[in-house]
Amino acid sequence: MKEKRSMTRQSEWMVWLITCVLAWSLGAGAQVGWANENDEVRVTILHVNDLYQIASLRNGKLGGFARLTTLRKQLEKENPNTFVLFSGDLYEPSALGNAVVDGRPLLGRHAVGVLNEVGVDYMTFGDHEFNMSADQFYDRLGESRFRMLSSNLFEEDGQPFPGVVANGLLSALDEQGRDVTIGVLGVTKPFRTKIPMKYVDHYEAIAQQLAKLEKRADMIIALTHFPRKEDMAIAQRYPAINLILGADDHEHMKLEQEGMATVYKSDSNARSVYVLDLYINRQAKSWRIEDRLVALDESIEQDPTTLAKVEKWIEIGFRGFEAAGLEPRRVLGQTPVDLDGLESSIRNRPTRLTQLIGEGMLRAGQDAGAQVAYYPAGLVRLDDILPTDYVVREFDVMRTIPFEVDIATVTMAGEALLKVLESGHGKIGTGRYIIPQGAERDDQGRWTVQGQALDPSGTYKVVTLAGPTTANVVAKHGSMKDALRNELGRLLKKVAN
């Protein structure tokens, strides 16, 4: 597998390294190596996770792979010992990934192509890396110029996937000739996939890799793709892990508990990222962390080379959609209000956008007598705000709901509906959080449907997701995208000339 560092970066690194060696050999006026017990080496980590959209958000003002490249270059200029670590979820889900190009859906090909420009030192798998066929998955691995790492996901025979290692080492050398080594392991939560593979229990995998890394590394980092609760359990169980860089929750967070590794997670789609300065003292066998959350806003310019790659892949994807008869560039109208689709919002509370989707579903089931609609927050992947006066195009509908999901009105017992609503409400902060329309919950946990108390012994007509095995179907209504598009048609205003 090709290294992600360019020849230019390798050359700069070699010049700097030779300078350090010459300084050491000539005794360049300063103490060299680990001369004092308080000496530290600073290592900078840029942490990212859950990158589904290659372009910037907020109408070009926030996030995006091109700003990641710029930030990485800025950090490297400040400290040559800078590394980019990625905790998974890149290939899917993505609206652009659904575009058929050369007879096959892109399914992450565009994302890998752009991430090659960003420059990543190690990436571990997210569960969504496996939402495709085996040959497409292996294609993505072969296209990657960055190093992949997984301690608990292997081929069926227990061997690593091609180009993937079970652990890694990051080596840093400062201008005084002091060197440190950081060990890296990576684990991913259980998931379903059609790709033949072997899943090793993550606790077992962590123990195996710690045994290999503890004697070789001054500090150990775990890249994890788990919900926050499991990250804290890992931190508690394995005190030999010094730092956990997580994913899956899609919101930035810093979780601390005395005597345990701190857990950091950045925002999805690089809206903001954690930059960590690690100060490692090999002599004292100690380390400390200084962190900062960096918003990738307009204060950070977009790297022109990476931006060109982003625009190239978007054009390739759009042409693929158009060849299939879709119209991603078609203007639907202009927003009269902000439409909040940020995952940090929609996985915790209703927004005007999620209400709009629910209203569209209810309207679709109107003739069938629908009283309530619901859907899981994980189906909405916009992770953006469409601001007031934003010109909405068909691609915005596609990136809001990148899945092909049909809806239907079904009859449902009141007791079953109550169970779904209450269980889904308890999943707040996750993709399984249920977003209802036509049903509300008060502060005492009592549910109403259309303003009347939900009767567990009653029967309700409910618009929900539909599949081949959906029972008690009253009427089918097409897709969730159709419901959203139709409701947008009622909300949006004409674009001013």
TrEMBL record:
<dbReference type="Pfam" id="PF00149">
    <property type="entry name" value="Metallophos"/>
</dbReference>
<comment type="similarity">
    <text>Belongs to the 5'-nucleotidase family.</text>
</comment>
<keyword id="KW-0547">Nucleotide-binding</keyword>
<dbReference type="InterPro" id="IPR006179">
    <property type="entry name" value="5_nucleotidase/apyrase"/>
</dbReference>
<dbReference type="GO" id="GO:0030288">
    <property type="term" value="C:outer membrane-bounded periplasmic space"/>
</dbReference>
<feature type="domain" description="5'-Nucleotidase C-terminal">
    <location>
        <begin position="332"/>
        <end position="465"/>
    </location>
</feature>
<dbReference type="Pfam" id="PF02872">
    <property type="entry name" value="5_nucleotid_C"/>
</dbReference>
<dbReference type="GO" id="GO:0009166">
    <property type="term" value="P:nucleotide catabolic process"/>
</dbReference>
<keyword id="KW-0378">Hydrolase</keyword>
<dbReference type="GO" id="GO:0008253">
    <property type="term" value="F:5'-nucleotidase activity"/>
</dbReference>
<dbReference type="GO" id="GO:0008768">
    <property type="term" value="F:UDP-sugar diphosphatase activity"/>
</dbReference>
<keyword id="KW-0732">Signal</keyword>
<protein>
    <submittedName>
        <fullName>Phosphoesterase</fullName>
    </submittedName>
</protein>
<dbReference type="GO" id="GO:0000166">
    <property type="term" value="F:nucleotide binding"/>
</dbReference>
<dbReference type="InterPro" id="IPR008334">
    <property type="entry name" value="5'-Nucleotdase_C"/>
</dbReference>
<dbReference type="InterPro" id="IPR004843">
    <property type="entry name" value="Calcineurin-like_PHP"/>
</dbReference>
<dbReference type="InterPro" id="IPR029052">
    <property type="entry name" value="Metallo-depent_PP-like"/>
</dbReference>
<dbReference type="InterPro" id="IPR036907">
    <property type="entry name" value="5'-Nucleotdase_C_sf"/>
</dbReference>
<feature type="domain" description="Calcineurin-like phosphoesterase">
    <location>
        <begin position="44"/>
        <end position="251"/>
    </location>
</feature>
